[in-house]
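Lab notebook page, bench 4
Experiment: in silico fold of construct C2
Operator: M.H.
Input chain length: 387 residues
Purpose: comparison with the prior construct
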Amino acid sequence: MIKLFPYVKRVFKEPDSSYFLFGPRGTGKSTMTYERHPDGLFIDLRVPDIRFRYLANPDQLLDLIRAQPDGKTIAIDEIQKVPELLSLIHILIEEKRGWKFILTGSSARKLKNKSVDLLGGRALREVLHPFMACEIKDTFDLEDALKYGLLPLRFGMKSPQKTLETYINLYIDEEVKSEGLIRQIEPFSRFLQVMSFSHGSLLNVTNIARESYVKRTTIINWISILEDLLIAYQIPIFTQRAKRELSAHPKFYFFDAGVYRALRPKSLKDSHSEINGAGLEGLVAQHLVAWRDYTDEKHTIHFWRTRSGVEVDFVVYGELGFWAIDVKNSIHIHPKDLRALKEFQKDYPEAKPLLLYRGKDRLLKQGILCLPCEEFLREVQPDKPLA
């Protein structure tokens, strides 16, 4: 079992001013904040007594903060649990005493639905992701990451699989059930399993509704819940200067390869290559999304798929470069594996094509750079070109 140091230094660059720090549970938001601000004032709204106190009398926050010295850092965990505090924080920021507020949250849904004051643009919105390979360095192991993902809370556990299963159940109980986001847990749990088959695939809401035994409109709402809880996201099709008919559906991913594997039902008939293929593509996706969010220059992430089914897994476009990336869960590269990238090059010759595979050697085939996937993931670092 992989062992980590007590604290892993994160590549996340903290703003100088107040900011929201969103991210799924277990990504280390509180740990990182405590580590970086040991002398800060911390208010943990996950603790029932503290949460109920501020729900009953939010104005207590004004008295507490005004007693702090100028320039103090104040961290409030799970701000969405008492969104009424945001209007008071806005008042405190306006007093210009140099206080820095770090407002963490594992869900943006409650804030969005209540249309609460998001500090009038006075606080940035940042996201913390699971570990990147570059953060855990030599500890990173591709096979381990495919099985258990890179969620910080699972490292050092005797049974990472059970930890992930418990994590999913707690998410359903504490984030979905307790917040009243759905009426019945059982259909939603079945929906999560069905969605695991869509990980790394085109999102077909009609098929998901049929397999989940619920209405299509319900599925649309539940997918939005997953996105608001930050445990899933969609990647759109790349349409810039499109020269041919393209797919209209986005692709769907869970935020972590280990969470995907824990949700995916297994049977003797399962194809390991199919499960690992989706897992590998998802692992690349979560690194690209983290790289985008941690990089100063603006980039977008898409995929490309023609009506005839020719698909490039990822298209990354921005100030540092333009890449077309295909992921293959195989140790050998066949000529047909290069077809999609070659087709993309016809329409976008300025893009740099990359093929990631499970082999050990860097190769150049037909002008396409082929990289071992583990090597690529280790080298993905914010503010640096992908290859």
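Observations: The mean pLDDT is 90. The longest helix spans residues 272-294.
Next step: discuss at group meeting.
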